[in-house]
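Predict structure. Chain length: 94.
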Amino acid sequence: MNMTCTPPATPKRQRNNAASDNVAQNVLCGIEEKSREIRFHGHIVKRLATKLQARARRALQAGSSIDELFAAALEKKKAEEAEPSDVKAEPSSN
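Prediction complete.
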């Protein structure tokens, strides 16, 4: 049997930790800045959402009252059409 030996372990190349720490610090600063922006805009978005909900609620209430008025007008028109008219058309004299 032929057994091969594994080569001796070589030390891993050392990284420049200062450069990677600097990059990590920049990333953290960027994340914190974006987080502040999101929190700020989140407040604005919540306020706008509240306004839109109020508008939608008012529109629904107005829509239901318009629907009720329309239904009442339609029933009145149907009732008028169902009643026989008292006034008969007179033939025109030419």
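Summary: The radius of gyration is 40 Å.
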